[in-house]
Amino acid sequence: MPTWVWTMSSLETHGLTVAYGSAVALESMNVSVKAGTVACILGANGAGKSSFLKCLVGLARAQSGKVLLDGQDVTNINAYEAAPRGIALSPEGRRLFPDLTVYENLCVGAYLRRRDASFRSDIDKVFGYFPRLQPKVQQLAGSLSGGEQQMVAIGRALMSRPRLLLLDEPSLGLAPLIVSQLASIITAINREGLTIVLVEQNARLALRLSQYGYVFETGRLALEGPSSELLQDPYVAELYLGGRSRSDSNKGGAAPVGSSLNVEPRDPV
Ligand SMILES: Nc1ncnc2c1ncn2[C@@H]1O[C@H](COP(=O)(O)OP(=O)(O)OP(=O)(O)O)[C@@H](O)[C@H]1O
Ligand SMILES: [Mg+2]
After folding, report:
1. Which domains are assigned to the chain?
2. Which of 32, 137, 157, 230 yields a CA-CA distance of 20 to 30 A from 221?
3. At what angle do helices 176-191 and 146-158 cross, to 10 degrees?
4. Ligand 1 close to Cβ of residue 256 (< 6 A)
5. Closest ligand to residue 59's CA
6. Probe ligand 1: pick from 31, 50, 55, 94, max atoms within 8 Å of CB?
7. Per-residue CA distances from 140 to 96, 124, 173, 201 (Å)
């Protein structure tokens, strides 16, 4: 299978605050992702995970703070600058063009390079990662299964040859077998050197795929650490991994921080 040679990039945000009008979605967020690693972001609905990723690609405005890619200031770039800067988002809900074919959707991701000779071979590389898309290349994206649509969404992001890949809820609504296939592909792409930020409500999956994790809670950073440590953390276990509630083991004790969060644990891969 033809492989890509990725350029690794590091990401840092310093005091990043994102607001929609007067509604603050994310406040003073400090995140650091080492080049060539996978970092995951966990958090309940509305915690600001998507806003964080959208801000990195110019789909949401930073009210204050900085975004650095390899130390270069990319704060508040326009959305059309994200691809040339090397940042690609596979968005929540996939956002494919349902009435365009698989091929055409992949072309969207490489729009800026559509006249390059490398364009065709990059499509073949996407099919190397996702072989089940190849026979469906002329099929309308809207007629694909959810898992196949997610593959196209990731493939489209890869077609821009990013240095930083942002994945927003890739496992959402997918059957465990497809989730496990996607997990293998994400790991393979990262092993080839691509830096990845993975937003997931499937915390167990995200922590297994990443080296470092951040927990967002109503727009603020609640916790961060190596993923192996977060997997063992009682707070994370209770809220995100379906662990035993502290109130069960400590009846009458103080409620743990954030215990009002309503997080449905998902099936492990
Ligand atoms: N375009 C928008 N206009 C106004 N408020 C928004 C907009 N997008 C998001 N928000 C608000 O910002 C906050 C964070 O939303 P965001 O989508 O970033 O959360 P999330 O962690 O991705 O949630 P989910 O797990 O449900 O995808 C929420 O309160 C949401 O209502
Ligand atoms: Mg979201």
Report:
1. 7-86+162-254 (3.40.50.300), 93-161 (no CATH)
2. 157
3. 10
4. no
5. 1
6. 50
7. 10, 18, 20, 28
Q: What is the pTM of this model?
A: 0.87
- The best mutation among 20, 31, 42, 90 to test binding of ligand 1, ranked by most ligand atoms within 8 Å of the C-beta, falls on 20
Distance from residue 24's CA to the centre of ligand 1 (Å): 10
Tens of pLDDT along the chain (269 residues)? 556 667 788 999 999 999 999 899 999 999 999 999 999 999 999 999 999 999 999 999 999 999 999 999 999 999 999 999 999 999 988 899 899 999 989 988 777 676 677 777 888 889 999 999 999 999 999 999 999 999 999 999 999 899 999 999 999 888 888 899 999 999 999 998 899 999 998 999 999 999 999 999 999 999 999 999 999 999 998 888 876 433 333 333 333 333 333 333 333 33
- CB-hemisphere CA count at 13 Å for 137? 12
Ligand nearest to the CA of 21: 1
Neighbours of 166 (CB within 10 A): 25
Ligand nearest to the CA of 168: 2
- In 3-state terms the chain splits into helix, strand, coil percentages (rounded to 5) of 35, 25, 40
